[in-house]
Amino acid sequence: MKVSTKRRKPRRGRPLKTDAAPDMRERILDAAEDHFSRHGFWGVTVREVAQEAKVDTALLHYYFNTKRGLFDAVFERRAEIINRERTESIDAYVKSAGSAITVEGVIDAFLQPILQRAATGDQRWHNYFALIAQVNNTPAWGGETMGRTFDNVIHHLIDALRKALPDVSEEELYWSYHFLSGALTLTLSQTGRIDRLSEGVCKSSDFEAIGRRMAPFIASGFERLCKPQAAKRKKIP
């Protein structure tokens, strides 16, 4: 059989979304992440992101359709990584602890992957964590976005905490998580307020210090609220 040596003509028009352009897509997402983390969703235009990424504005619309589509892609990209790492960390702890499982151990397993990411000094991860803090404090659509992105891993955390707190009150368990979420997102935002308030004794970028203190502190709150409720429930005939 004769093999054709005729060269194919290059395809004209816009690139397919499946074309080998991951570097371009990542460049766009990095630029968008940087802008959204500093100025919020409403303070950023598609044109500004395109200029930062050094691409035509039409490419952003082509790959992400709308500015909200771009924002969601930015928000979900790193979430996939930290959700997997936190799930694996919780599972590993629960398996190794067995019947000796503790509230502090579960919370530490949940926190460490994200605190370790924050401690690396990678500016892209810092941008992403600042973005999480913004979204978690956005009344209009922040709750829906956080829920869609992170609820699965949070339910995984809650299930592990139930093992450490048998007969726990569901109300106190979820209130306790609510306070954990606020403390974590404030910490990840690195506002520098604690630096000024403590006159430099504490630094919002000191994730080694944060990592040693946060799990014991949060666990004490869980135990203070949840354990008395669990004891009361056991006494009910």
Automatic annotation (TrEMBL):
SUPFAM superfamilies: Homeodomain-like, Tetracyclin repressor-like, C-terminal domain. Residues 22-82 form the HTH tetR-type domain. The keyword Nucleus does not apply. PROSITE patterns: HTH_TETR_2. Gene3D superfamilies: Tetracycline Repressor, domain 2. Keywords: DNA-binding. Residues 45-64 bind DNA. Residues 1-15 have a biased composition (Basic residues). Residues 1-20 are annotated as: Disordered. It holds the Pfam family TetR_N. The keyword DNA-binding applies. PANTHER family: HTH-TYPE TRANSCRIPTIONAL REGULATOR RUTR (PTHR30055), TRANSCRIPTIONAL REGULATORY PROTEIN (PTHR30055:SF235). This is TetR/AcrR family transcriptional regulator. It comes from Steroidobacter flavus.
